Amino acid sequence: MNEYSLFAPVYDWVLYPFMRGIRQDVLKMVEQIKPDRIIDVCCGTGDQLRLFRQSGMNAMGIDYSDAMLRVAARKRPGISCLKQDATAMAFTDLSFDAAIVSMGLHETGWEQAQGILEEIHRILDLDGRLIIVDYELTQATSVVARKAIHAIEYIAGGDHFRNFRRYIHNGGLKKLIDPRRFVPVENRLHGRGSIVVRLLQKQDRNAEPRKTEPKRPDDQ
Question: pTM score, two decimals?
Fold first, then answer.
């Protein structure tokens, strides 16, 4: 998206105060999984990858924005971030034990987000885990958080805002995630109930969906 050309240089500076706790939560969740190979899809400036590397994990990332990747290369030395289309990744089937997609699904467009999840399902190992971080606006979301999010997305404008509105209108992650492909394991809420860190396990697409309820700890 063209918006990233202007936003990329200040991305970390603007979002770090809001994302710090979430990134630490994702790190703890991955440390519990103990994957050998992990990929950060739509990795942006590589901030989450930096934490993975510091913890000694074998992690790499992909993103399609040249502007974001330039920031990642300049500010995160030693981190592997490749330019790839998340809907058509250049990896063989079953290549990774775990995958992350953080704040990338609501902004890409509904069909593209579905394509990203399809690709993640393909490249994950048979018992692979997926961690999604994204908006989840429900009755539990505070009015202040809801208004703040809409204001931020409105300021982002363009396709970004249109895709966000469609994401919310279509039901967000609840409707986006196919239960034939991913089974919920755990939810952790942040931002006054507006952002979820959701851990899922890969399921055989031909199997009957398992009816399980994810754990829901208190809001972080």
Answer: 0.86
